[in-house]
Amino acid sequence: MIQHSRVVQWLVTGLVVTVTLFVVLFLGWLRVHHLSQGFLEQEAQRQRAALERIVTTAEETLTGATPWVGRTCGEVNSSLQATGSLSPYFRSIWLVSHGKMYCSSVIRSNDAIDMPLPAELVPLLTGTREMFVAGTPYVRNAPALALFVPTSATDGVLGFIDGVYLTESLHSVKTNDLAWTAMTIGRVSLTSEGPKLESVGVATRGAQVTLDSDHFSTSLAGSSALTRSLIAGQAPVFLAFGGIIALLLGILTFRHLGPAQSMRRKIALGIKRNEFKVYYQPVMELATGRCAGAEALMRWHHPDAGLVRPDAFIPLAESNGLIIELTRALLKQIRNDVARGALPQGFHIAINLAERHLRDTTIVHDIERLYGSLNATYPMIAEITERYVIRDTAAARNVMAELQRHGIETSLDDFGAENNSIGYLKRYDFNYLKIDKEFLPVTEADTVTRNICDSIIHLAERLDMTIVAEGVENEMQANYLRARNVTYAQGYLFARPIAFDDLVQFAIAHPLRGLTPVNPMPATVAPMPPRMAG
Ligand code: C2E
Ligand code: CA
Ligand code: CA
């Protein structure tokens, strides 16, 4: 009821593993993307440099021809032809004067040609230095790059770099790792796919890297082979890494949400929120029927599960170590209750210790710190059950000796319930022996249990231990114990574990001879419920 559902545990673990794998795969994808970008960036720089070399060399050639502008074609024609054929890349070089192409490297003529600049080239006279053209005056359907080096507003040298050179250059840098490469000027591009002009939007769709230069921009995209080879290189690392991380996180989550851990957190939270309450079960002096003390028993007022009995949380708190904190909370409550002074002087308060308490003297200091001076008026008894196996007997003996040195008596709880009884008696020095309810005769005719109980009583007397019989549920059992001079008894016959105010009422109704409350009972305390009457 107060435990975590297994379904939630598996669901959350599955979710954590899935999310972890997704995150690791995403990181892997980022890594592949990063490597791919780095590689493409390098390729784009290589490509830009190759194209820059062509354009710059061509521009230098054109600049070299600028002194001929304005001179007659006859004068410079042969020099222009020589330049056009000796310089790489050029399809033709033209001299332009007053907006007209008047001398060409490919036409042997002494007369001026006087061809007006085609409309598409007019922007060259208004500041544009380079542009792609679909064809040139004598080679109509083969794209070229027009380069213009002006000498005045209307004059200059115009050169056409053949598109084939550029396409070849674009193609030569393209390895298997690249899907395509492109060179763009304005809104027009030339790609590695062939000497054909395309609009920039179509040619460079999906570009992964674009680099600008003074004259043009260059773009490219990686091929699926590149992605595949990068994934093949990274996948083993990321899959192994992701698998290990997901597995570890999965295990951690599964354990964290496991019943034991979830219970641990609930107990820790319960301590913080003061959900643990102390109940007191009266211990009666059999000969007189008076209340001599009480055993403090823990209850958990759980917000969802209601009142939880100790068997459901004490063993867990013992195994995960929270019992130390839990006992501190118990001691604080006992101190607050008892310090009100409503109980008679000499009234004993018994607490239960766990095996962990016997490993070192922390409990002695805790009792000293939290209960300290109250021990003189309301002596504390530490009950140590023989149900658990004591790991470190030397440490346990030391803790018990320290408790007794601080005036805290010890009681061997649940005597006979397990196999450790005689060993405990031999090894440790107890003041009280609590006979487990299992050894109280159930009927008059129950001779076997009677004989065992008789032997236990006899043994305790021989060892000079005071006996407390627990689980006394009827008069027959009480009479049996009385007849054998057993000093104390505890059980439903007298009272169940009750809240402190009820304990005070009970103690007043069953006063120990000569013992009176230190402080009169506060008027607000409710009368004792009928079920608790002894
Ligand atoms: P225990 O120390 O043997 O406590 C006696 C148990 O017997 C109590 O159960 C009590 O309610 C029950 N009892 C008392 N009279 C009768 C009776 O006449 N008939 C029957 N059938 N039972 C009776 P409870 O309170 O449920 O405690 C169970 C166990 O939880 C305790 O056994 C004790 O070992 C442990 N425990 C309770 N509080 C604490 C604590 O603060 N610290 C530690 N370490 N253990 C605790
Ligand atoms: Ca006990
Ligand atoms: Ca007991």
UniProtKB/TrEMBL annotation:
Q: Write down the chemical reaction(s) this protein catalyses.
A: 3',3'-c-di-GMP + H2O = 5'-phosphoguanylyl(3'->5')guanosine + H(+)
EC assignment: 3.1.4.52
Enumerate the spans annotated as EAL domain.
260-511
Question: What UniProt keywords apply to this chain's record, in alphabetical order?
Answer: c-di-GMP, Cell membrane, Hydrolase, Membrane, Transmembrane, Transmembrane helix
> In its keyword annotation, does this UniProt entry include Lipoprotein?
no
**SMART domains cross-referenced by the UniProt entry:** EAL (SM00052)
Alphabetized InterPro entries for the sequence? CSS-motif_dom (IPR024744), Cyclic-di-GMP_PDE-like (IPR050706), EAL_dom (IPR001633), EAL_sf (IPR035919)
One GO molecular function term of this record is: cyclic-guanylate-specific phosphodiesterase activity
Where are the bilayer-spanning segments? 7-30, 237-257
Q: How does it sit in the membrane?
A: Multi-pass membrane protein
| Source domain of life | Bacteria
Q: Which PROSITE patterns match?
A: EAL
Where is this protein chiefly located?
membrane
Q: Which GO terms describe its cellular component?
A: plasma membrane
The protein in question is named cyclic-guanylate-specific phosphodiesterase
Q: From which source organism is this entry?
A: Pandoraea terrigena
